[in-house]
Write the structure tokens for this entry.
Amino acid sequence: AVVSTQSTGVMKNALCLALMDSGVPMKGMFAGVSCVQQENGELFWDPTAEEEEESTAKYTFVYENGAKNAIFTHCTGESSIEQFMLALQKSRQVACEVFGFYRESFEKLLRKDVRFQMMLPPVIKGEILEDPEP
């Protein structure tokens, strides 16, 4: 089991990317989103340390790919149910952007890998060469 001690969405995303890149079998991808609520009710996504310090509530949401359901939520501070639901709804949109980033990142990685594979001699690619004629 892999456990992230960091509560930020960014750390959850780095964990997901690292697991995917290393080939660890997973049932699906996940995306973390962090936001804070200021005293006036305004929400800030991917907050700075200063924004976190000035916040009245901190939220972290983790979504699964596919249905985009929240599989983890964490809230500290004071928040109304309405404000929590607004943060949950808007964070789902941010998670969709994170999944788009994952897709673009791995498409670039795969294109580089394919180009590299095309440059390798057949023996390194794993193809069997015919025996040279005597």
